[in-house]
Amino acid sequence: MWSGRLSAEGVPPPGDREVRMFKVGDLAVYPAHGVGKIEAIETKSIGGHSQDFYIMRILENDMKIMIPVQNAHVVGLRRLIAADEVHKVYDILRRREISVNSTTWNRRYREYMEKIKTGSIYELAEVLRDLTVLQNDKELSFGERKMLETARALLVTEVAMARGAQESQIACEIDEILQ
Question: What is the CA radius of gyration of the chain?
């Protein structure tokens, strides 16, 4: 039986997972896509084997995603952070001692994309912070600008949902921190 404990990424620790982390109606975060709602849990037959899937609708763009229940933690599906964890995200955004070395923009882009794909809100906050600091030093590539926008939107949405606040309020708070 699952104890309910979660790691910083919102995933049950190894050996402490139940088959279903979510139920219909739960909000969850899917890496690089953002917050979504579990609309159903369906059993599908694939290659002669029955498998349960979470049917999740991403709130931002209404995209529908099928996630195998048994692989949900592997793909990075996780719960929203708790409201009392938001301060940790804001602390990351406040830190200015970043290591943006002189690597090429496409290498940085790949590194930041890997961080976003982890699904960790803390890694996402680092990407937003680093790109914002870098933007103050030099012009970002088109890809980096799009990534900055995406990271900001994903962060704003999740923090707003976690705190039960308006996205516009959270966007202002984050912009103020990053100035």
Answer: 17
Q: Is 157 exposed, middle or buried (0-12, 13-18, 19+ CB in 10 A)?
A: buried
Q: Among 9-23, 25-39, 87-101, 140-154, whose mean pLDDT is lowest? A: 9-23
- For the domain 83-178, what is the CATH code? 1.20.58.1290
The domain locations on the chain are: 1-80, 83-178
pLDDT in tens, 145-170: 999 999 999 999 999 999 999 999 99
Query: What's phi and psi for 65, nearest 5 deg?
Result: -125, 135
- Examine the pLDDT at 141 and tell me if it is beyond 60: yes
Residue 18 confidence class, pLDDT cut points 50, 70, 90: very low
Residue type at 29 in one-letter notation: V
Cα distances (angstroms) measured from residue 21 to each of 27, 51, 54, 111: 11, 15, 10, 29
1-80 CATH, one of 3.40.1190.10, 3.40.50.300, 2.30.30.240, 2.40.10.170: 2.40.10.170
